[in-house]
Amino acid sequence: MAMLSTLWKNVWLQHGQLVFDQDFFQSIQNYVAENSTSAQSDVERWCSFLSRNGIEELTLHLFVLRSMFKLPICIFSCHTIKRLKLDSLIVDFPANAPCIFPGVTSLVFDSVELNGVASTIPNLEKLAFLGDCEGMDKFQIIAPKLESLCHISGYSGFEPTWFAVQLNRIKTLCLSGGSFLWRRDIVTAVLNSSTTAINLQVMELHDLSFSCELQISTAMTLLQKSPNLCELGIGAAMARAQYEEDTLNHLEDPDHYFINQDMKMLKTVKIDGFNGSRLEVLFIKSVFSKCPALERVVIHPAWSIIDALMGMNILRELACFPRASPNAQLVFLEHESTYNLVGYNVIDEY
């Protein structure tokens, strides 16, 4: 604790939570600049102390002066950490380690650099990739207890075969349409896989473009592989009329562009940022006709269609459309921009 005043020597022991993040390091930039060779060793000393003294939740955000620190090796073997978030770090997985992060149940990577292939994380239940995570396409951990997988990252995503395997066990899936859903190899791997997302109950698709055939193809493939899905949340990307017309002109069968089989367990569908495009309306009609257990379709419109007349025209068209479920309700709400797509915030759950 050489960077801190001696007045802090005993004060910090009285607190249950300690935060050594970007703000902390910015306040001591001059020290780090003058002692750059010792900064990494200081981080390692702090982490070593914490790992020996029963720490259960740890967030490391250590991006300082355009340089990235390496995750100290002691964290990989710490048995007490249960919730771990690594932000702006270099993570060099230890070679030939049979087990890493042995006690971790929730793991978040945010804008990290991943090097090497991880081994088994025995108790991991929730895994998330946020920001720009380099090397995640080579990330092939074994996590027998994994239940929740999240990818809201600028990078293109997981290794396809590994992802297809995870679909067999997870209950919650959160993906970004702006990067992950562009992957044709993901569609191929999922379709060729003999496994089904039999346990998947909640799916969130952020920044999904209804006019992009590749994104929709990937998304609908995932839906078809999820027979027990109960809740679907979609954050719609801004509609582009030209792209929508091109897509509609290429459709051989508009009625089967989206869901082409019954989703027997789907009860709730929520669309945030609804633009009122023809493809979005077509999707909702597909949900109405293919979901016999449907209870609610919730629409949060984008600012661009607050116009009351347009909203009423859409409501009138959808209200008259036949529904497979006699209990299905259409809920049209005022604009609300949120990551909380399906009843709770998946990202905050990590």
Structure description:
The protein is of the alpha/beta class and 350 residues long. It is 27% helix and 21% strand. The chain has 10 helices and 15 strands. The protein has helices spanning 22-26, 29-34, 36-51, 73-77, 160-166, 184-192, 213-224, 241-250, 278-290, 308-319; strands at 57-61, 63-64, 67-70, 83-87, 89-92, 106-110, 113-115, 126-131, 148-153, 172-176, 202-208, 231-236, 268-274, 296-301, 329-332. The chain has an 11-stranded parallel beta sheet with strand order 1-4-6-8-9-10-11-12-13-14-15, covered by helices on one side. Helix 5 (160-166) crosses helix 6 (184-192) and helix 6 (184-192) runs parallel beside helix 7 (213-224). It starts with 21 loop residues before the first helix and ends in an 18-residue tail after the last strand. The mean pLDDT is 81.
Strand order in the sheet with the most strands? 1-4-6-8-9-10-11-12-13-14-15
Query: What is the domain tally?
Result: 2
Low-confidence stretches: none
Instruction: Classify the oligomer.
Output: single chain
Q: What is the name of the CATH architecture of the largest domain?
A: Alpha-Beta Horseshoe
Our count of helices gives 10
What is the helix content?
25-40%
Summarize the structure.
The protein has 350 residues and is an alpha/beta fold. It has helices spanning 22-26, 29-34, 36-51, 73-77, 160-166, 184-192, 213-224, 241-250, 278-290, 308-319; strands at residues 57-61, 63-64, 67-70, 83-87, 89-92, 106-110, 113-115, 126-131, 148-153, 172-176, 202-208, 231-236, 268-274, 296-301, 329-332. The protein has an eleven-stranded parallel β-sheet, covered by helices on one side.
